[in-house]
Prior knowledge:
By secondary structure, the protein is α+β, with helices and mostly antiparallel strands. Helices cover 31% and strands 37% of the residues.
Amino acid sequence: xxxxxxxxxxxxxxxxxxxxxxxxxxxxxxxxxxxxxxxxxxxxxxxxxxxxxxxxxxxxxxxxxxxxxxxxxxxxxxxxxxxxxxxxxxxxxxxxxxxxxxxxxxxxxxxxxxxxxxxxxxxxxxxxxxxxxxxxxxxxxxxxxxxxxxxxxx
Length: 154
């Protein structure tokens, strides 16, 4: 089937859809929209998330922690992705690796880290079913080197 432009009408590939889910998550974080940020997570008691040393074993627990932990939404800072890699493992399962920095303008602090994310395809789209977030403690130069490495592997 062709569109009016004469190009084939193709749906986005699964890895493109996963990438867009991750971009939506980052966009909602930077908008300080916790509810929108959490929409990309599987709303299930089976959700499994680790943030540094804290473990969340269900969506509601993760939700409550974010809502209570960021009562002043500006305290969320602004996230800048350095690298996002997506690998489709099976037709309905993907792995994403992200490297990022969060800037906190009010305190002039910057935290860098990485996240390993497992996503599953459901009837309503791709959702995060498990993830582990960790702060690296790396300096800016090492983070830039990682970003260049990511670009080379794309």
